[in-house]
Write a structure and sequence with these properties.
By secondary structure, this protein is mainly alpha-helical. It has a domain at 9-58: Arc Repressor Mutant, subunit A. The protein has 5 helices and no strands. The chain has helices spanning 9-22, 29-37, 45-58, 71-77, 82-85. α1 packs across α2, α1 packs across α3 (45-58) and α2 crosses α3. The chain is elongated and about 50 Å long. It starts with 8 loop residues before the first helix and ends in a 5-residue tail after the last helix.
Length: 90
């Protein structure tokens, strides 16, 4: 279970909006996160990054789950010996 945030939900939403607003002024997202994090009360760049990812996931702009492996690939990934992989038991 995650620890409760010391920042209010409104502060987190405002910080996420600020990152979206300044994103065009910076070459990459990490630079925008650092710029917003320097403002008083905005939180750390790490916290901002987490909040932005959560917002993107919640709004459907970022996938929520990792893609699943195909069944034949899963079988190869399981711990087996080399002789079992090619189908011949020695």
């Amino acid at each position: 279970m995650a620890w409760p945030s010391s920042c209010s939900l409104e502060l987190r939403r405002r910080a996420v909006r600020m990152v979206a607003e300044v994103l065009g002024d910076h070459p990459a997202e990490p630079a925008a996160l650092k710029a917003v994090a320097q403002k008083p009360g905005a939180g750390t760049a790490e916290a901002l990054s987490k909040w932005v990812r959560q917002d993107q996931t919640g709004s459907g702009r970022r996938p929520t789950a990792k893609p699943r492996l195909a069944p034949d690939h899963r079988d190869l990934c399981r711990s087996r010996t080399g002789s079992e992989i090619d189908g011949v038991r020695r």
